Amino acid sequence: MSWDVSERPPTRGGRAATTAAVLIAVAAVVLAEVQLDALPRLVDLLVGGDVARRYTLGRLLLATLGVLGFLAAVQWKRLRDRTAFLHQVNEALLLLRENEQRFRSVVEESPVGVGIVRRGIVLYANRATIRIFGQTDRSLMLGSAVLNYVAPQARAELGESVRKQEQGEIGPTS
Fold this sequence. Notes:
Blueprint: H1 14-32, H2 39-48, H3 50-54, H4 57-109, E1 115-118, E2 121-125, H5 127-132, H6 138-141, H7 155-166
């Protein structure tokens, strides 16, 4: 049995029953993700089928409202849980940023030279490192080969150490 929206659907309970059935069917489409083409069949079932004979419209509406209330409560709990989780993530990120800033300050202001080198290239050098190597500008050191700052007699040993680290034979040096 098909139903054209422009026509009046077949009813047994009158206009109020039809309106309620359409509202219930639309709620089912929205909340239960029923296919839209099933909407007319669902209205027919609610208005003229077995469900309408076994239950009064009031009970059907109460049951539907109960289901909708339950679904709303479940969605509310999910939203509340997600909000709490996002709040925790935000707090953790703020704490991480604060700790990172403190760490950067300690490393940058350290009287000991601190540098980061990867694959033989200087990626970071604190103020002490720049001063130790007689540089005036950090940008002159960054991106340059670390071997430029090593005594000629120690370059072979450092080169071998870097090669072993890259191949995983030894751990990082401090």
